[in-house]
Amino acid sequence: MELEEGESADDLWRSFLSSFMELQSRFIPLKGTGQKFIQPKWFNREIRNLLRERRTAYRQAKASGDFDGHRRLNRNVKSKIRAAKRAEEVRVARLCKENPKEFFSYVNGRKPIRRRIGPLVNEDGALMHSDAENANLLNEYFSSVFSEESGPIPEPLDSFSEKLESMVFTQEEIERKIIELKANKSPGPDRFLPRVLREVHGEVSRHLCMVFNRVIQTGCVPRDWREAEVTPIFKKGDASQPSNYRPISLTSIVCKLMERIMVDKITAHLESNLLLRGSQHGFRQHRSCLTNLVEFFHFVFSEHDRDKAIDVVYLDFQKAFDKVPQPPPPSESACTGHRRKCGKLDRELAK
């Protein structure tokens, strides 16, 4: 699998994608379950054999009229099933941090009622029954909610000397990020499986390094990275209104891999040049909502000890994500100290 140096970012990506998928289909077999009914994970061989013995004992008891043996076996089967279910719940609970996907799958499977999407109502009040109509209606709504800045955006003042003019990706940091991928994550539209990437990280990191650096040099991302598989999640209110659903997007695993490396580089630049205020606790290492609350309560009680009055105002934005301008303004990139190609890349990724 060789990539040409002179190709564009999109050509490099498509060459890598086609070669990788061909090798994946050739050397990684697919296994079908072949079962219409999927057995629960607590169902084991011992329980299966006990169920067979119970059926046999029932037929014998029905013929002889003596059900004592069948009753004892039935109590034993129920006891084994309860113990197997408890063991499965303990296993899922222990793995909830490492594998939250399995945890929520188990919880959702225990719900007596599962919420379906729709049927939705359009602007004319007509009820949409088919999946295609509901999907088109949600797509139109999700595409219409983004805000656009109508007035001029003020330019930030450059109060720093060091600027992050460009980025260079290395094979070592790409390998490190691939190893950190969670193997049970769902793939995006490009069908890259995190588990497969982790198994061949030493080989693919060299090619991804070439793709990532070409993306940074040109400021253009491959077209595949702009696609996403969108799942509407119901929040609250009337389930027939599209405005009460929020989109959850599954994007390219490889694109998110590059974004994580970019975040690390930008964060390191901001931290080293003291461009972040001390009051910012979100999206910073070793800081969280808990540290923000601790600092806030420390300030409140310190002022209270000095007999000073304190007024607290809480603000919340309804549908805050919809209010974010798309694409982001150029000044947003400029205020962090990274310009030119990096700022253009931010806008490309936001499309």
From TrEMBL:
GO terms for biological process: cell adhesion involved in heart morphogenesis; DNA biosynthetic process; larval heart development. Residues 324-351 are annotated as: Disordered. It comes from the Eukaryota. SUPFAM superfamilies: DNA/RNA polymerases. Residues 235-326 form the Reverse transcriptase domain. One of its GO terms (cellular component) is extracellular matrix. This is Reverse transcriptase domain-containing protein. The lineage of its organism: Eukaryota, Metazoa, Ecdysozoa, Arthropoda, Crustacea.
